[in-house]
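Design a sequence for this backbone.
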């Protein structure tokens, strides 16, 4: 006769099944986090620096793929984005004495 393998009552308990499910869920979340983190590192390494992008633009211009006007437009937009908000200093009047001048 073939004997059937009987599962112990320990694994049929709802508490043990819930705990096992939570452990498996934590393992899956950890694996997903690892995959996403490694993908983000990979993508971050692919970004070009500003000087590399400018060199590629100049090469495209040399080959005739883009015009001089397009180069200027791209450079102006790039400079505006990298500069951020421009802070203007308050104009000083000639009556103000600066610490470096002698009176």
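Sequence:
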């Amino acid at each position: 006769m073939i004997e059937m393998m009987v599962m112990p009552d320990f694994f049929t308990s709802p508490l043990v099944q819930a705990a096992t499910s939570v452990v498996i869920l934590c393992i899956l979340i950890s694996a997903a986090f690892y995959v996403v983190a490694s993908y983000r590192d990979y993508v971050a390494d692919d970004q070009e620096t500003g000087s590399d992008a400018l060199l590629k633009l100049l090469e495209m211009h040399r080959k005739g793929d883009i015009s001089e006007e397009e180069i200027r437009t791209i450079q102006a937009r790039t400079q505006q984005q990298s500069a951020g908000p421009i802070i203007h200093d308050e104009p000083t009047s000639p009556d103000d004495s600066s610490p470096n001048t002698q009176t």
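The longest helix spans residues 14-46.
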